[in-house]
Amino acid sequence: MKIDGTLPCPFCGGEDLSFEYPVGIHCEGCGAHGPVKYLTEQPRAAWNRRLNKPVRSLSAAAPCVICEGVTEDHCPDCMAALCLGSECDQKHATSCEPIQRALRTVST
Question: What's the Rg (C-alpha) of the chain?
Answer without folding.
Answer: 14
